[in-house]
Amino acid sequence: MMVDALRGVSFAVEAGSVYGVIGRNGAGKTTLFRTIAGILPPSEGRVTVWGRVTPLLSLGVGFNRELTGRENILLGGLAAGLDEETVYEHFAEVEEFAGLGEAIEFPMRTYSSGMFGRLGFSVAAHLNPDILLIDEALSAGDAAFRRKCMPKIVELCERDCTVMIVSHGLEFVKQLADRCLWIDRGEVVSEGPAGDVVNEYLAADSIDPTSAVALEDV
Amino acid sequence: MTHMSAPPSRVPRAPGEAHVVRPSMSARERLARIIQRRELLVGMVRNELKIKYKNSVLGFAWSLLNPLLYLVVFYVAFTIILGSGIPAFPIWLLSGLLVWNLFSTGLGAATGSVVANSGLVKKVSFPREILPLASVGSMLVHFFLQSLVLFVVLAAVRWHVAWAYIPLIPLALIALLLVTSALGILLSAINVYLRDTSHFLELALLAWFWVTPVVYYFQLVGHRHGWSKYLWLANPVTPIVLIFQRAIYAKLTNPHPAGGGPPIQLLPHWPYWGFLAYLGWSFAFGLVTLTIAVRVFGRSEANFAEEL
Known about the structure:
Strand content of chain B: under 5%
Oligomer: heterodimer
CATH superfamily of the largest domain in chain A: P-loop containing nucleotide triphosphate hydrolases
Distance between the termini of chain A: 34 Å
Order of helices and strands of chain A: EHEEHHHHEHEHEEHH
């Protein structure tokens, strides 16, 4: 049986803005990102992107667990479409931001999911992305690391990088995103300024905005 | 499924960088994409080599030990027990076995490559053909290492190679890489949907090994008649093995067979162009298979992320 994960979804994202995508589990958020990233080409329709898309899906940028963190920085960079020279130029920054200490020399199978997520974000954010897709990738890091990511995202946008965030952490979307897309069962429910869409979503799903889950599950 | 168009309100940093994600891509576009991402290919080859020997004590020595162990086994079986009647059997065997090893290990690794790298396939967009190609590439590195063993043996016994035929070797190697990559790309895509492919391939390669003149000599079958011979000749690996044997082993006959009797012909008495023409078959097979493989791979690639 064929199931359309997404149907008739159409929207435009302004360059250099932060764009949030919200919706329940199974709404099609990850599929949408995979489609934009070119991992899962659409069966109909098209996605036009200006620049290099760096997807950060479920914590990794295509890491190999048998390789060390350091080796994976190179692999992640090459897989994201950079040349070796550029990756080495930013090597120190990536390592420093991830803040893994000597664990960077260990195989990634020894990493906790938090460490995995930190290296993933660090690689994706430091290797000159034009369009950065972040899918729940920040949820694994601890609060301190998340606080570190926020200004980094803002900084990326100042450099004209477009950031798209999938998140259950609605507060996070509200704070960071300029505009927001709410999808449900593969179709657009609402699109507009982030604050309005998030409020609409909260009202419809009768989620208490002050509930710990909504706030903390970033 | 989706219809999205994103006219940028600001000028994109590098004009002409607009990229459209579409349901399908032509074979030419796909090839261009692979060439564009060659640094990733090289990086993947390096990673495969690193991972393979990461937790092994002997490391790269395994790559050299493997053909030597084969040599001992086949020497005992064919020279001592069966009496194959091929003089200097170790040199005979190595000149064909290294080629076969590159083919069989390359094809085996390539077939499993997309499934083995599912993490990468699900998270990043890149020409997925790079995965089987990187597998073949890493086996090519092993092939070069193993060739060193052969060179040392040849130098130690002052073996006379057929210098005139040595220029055919790089050509034969290119044909081998073409055939291996083409089949590897095809089978790696099929293996995503039918995981039995890897298991089946193991058996198929065992059979394939025995229809390739590696431990026995070409003329054993080559002088026969009938349709079965032509089927045997159609093996695209045979011309490649034959050229390596012609150039490195270089002896066409065994003048003094073990049991007495007339000399036994080992390799065909073909002129230079005869070998070249036969190699043409390998190229033809490789190109046709590659064309089919790229199509099949391209069609099924869109669903890789879902199937893995």
